Structure prediction request, 190 residues.
Amino acid sequence: MKKYLLPSLRLTLVMLVLLCIIYPLFIAGVAKLAPGGGDGVKVYYHGKIVGYENIAQSFKSDTYFQPRPSAVGYNAAGSGASNKGPTNLDYLKSVQAAIDTFMRHNPGVNKADVPAELVTASGSGLDPDLSPEGAKIQVKRVARLCNISEESLNKLVDEHTEKPLLGLFGPPKVNVLKLNIALDEMQKAN
Prediction:
């Protein structure tokens, strides 16, 4: 028994030091090299922090572009999805409710043209980006409520569309927070 007990205890101690001290310190060090120093990339507007680049937030007013729905209520303390499959009746009801809400706030849009991303939550529930199509389908509503031409808003969406990494990796995307800040600036200029 002694033959197995001492090596087991040594291995346990080595693994505790490695996995509970060295590995977390290494990961924290690598995070400090990332943009935002591991604390997230803050977005400032007029010298105030208004959000984080990689965390979605809710915009209550229809005068703003709306992000994807959130399964966690835009609570950045934790992320998560509904974990309900596409045949789950509760899930189908929540998607239908999101479609109905979108149609009510965006009259004149064909139901078939509504991108799935605007009525379904992302895997994290905190996705800050939309596809350019997801943003452009909201242009008509925002233009009407903000008294800005649709042409100007489409140009604004195009200016805030980030291309795929190296032109290859990932789809084009629009950060909703940055787009709404640019919208505020456009309204002040008019």
Remarks:
- The two ends are 82 Å apart (CA to CA).
- The mean pLDDT is 89.
- Residues 160 and 179 are 6 Å apart (CA to CA).
- Strands lie at 42-45, 48-52, 129-130, 161-162, 173-175.
